[in-house]
Amino acid sequence: MVAAELRDVTVHIDTGRWSETVLDAVSLAVPEGRITALIGESGCGKSMAAAALTGLLPATAQRSGQVLVDGTVAHGRPELRAIGYAPQDGVTAFKPGEAVGAQLRDLEEIHRHWSVERACAAAGYPAEVFDLLPRQHSGGQIQRAALAAALLPSPRILVADEPTASLDAENAYRVWKTLREYADEGAAVLVITQDVPMLAATGVADRMAVMRAGRILVEDSAAAVAALDNPYVQGFFREG
Ligand SMILES: Nc1ncnc2c1ncn2[C@@H]1O[C@H](COP(=O)(O)OP(=O)(O)OP(=O)(O)O)[C@@H](O)[C@H]1O
Hints:
The chain is an alpha/beta fold. The protein has a domain at 1-83 and 192-240: Rossmann fold (3-Layer(aba) Sandwich). 34% of the residues lie in helices and 29% in strands. The chain contains nine helices and ten strands. Strands 6-7-8-3-9-10 form a six-stranded mixed β-sheet, with helices on both faces. A four-stranded antiparallel β-sheet has the order 2-1-4-5. Bound molecules: adenosine-5'-triphosphate. Adenosine-5'-triphosphate (ATP) binds next to strand 2 and helix 1. InterPro entries: AAA+_ATPase (IPR003593), ABC_Ni/Peptide_Import (IPR050388), ABC_transporter-like_ATP-bd (IPR003439), P-loop_NTPase (IPR027417). This is ABC transporter ATP-binding protein. GO terms for molecular function: ATP binding. It is a peripheral membrane protein.
């Protein structure tokens, strides 16, 4: 069953100094028990698609089309708050002036689903840096902390924006394994990623959606996308 969905979503951003259509009639389904990988060139709108799905579009954005959760139209952030979200810049997942470990403990207390220990082990976030402020973390450490924070409430729908971008191969593998296990438990997982050769080699993603210039070019099983005779798509499957 499709847990979350963008249906014909167009997002136009007008900052006053410039304006741009960042999503152009995007339809994207995120089914239960599956990992859907969203791929595409830099700036094509992947993070905007995640923002539309989680109700976190910039204030300057105008959106048309629909966001659906379990087939019901959601009208904004309050209805989409239950979707777990690990942002591309992990620092933004935390308050700046408080140690990350303490903030994770607060989430554990509020939600009472996963323990901090379980979430940190799943994300590979090391306990040694618990007492540091968000900005005192390395890029890879705060990215893993943000994933731990997103997992703590045990959301049925999880959106992770480039969760392995700053990680070495071993930690990246651990994160992919965690996401696979999480989807196997029934969650609907959407992952924005550049790790396409790794996904192809391990078969960890079930589905892929490819974006270009604000549009979805193709959305299909990972195997079908990998087999597409399209130079833009094939470019993502080659080792950089
Ligand atoms: N807060 C914002 N306000 C206005 N425009 C934005 C904002 N964030 C992103 N954009 C614009 O929206 C477009 C899509 O950006 P987006 O971040 O979704 O790309 P992306 O595919 O995730 O790129 P990357 O792989 O580099 O992270 C870009 O043209 C970008 O300049």
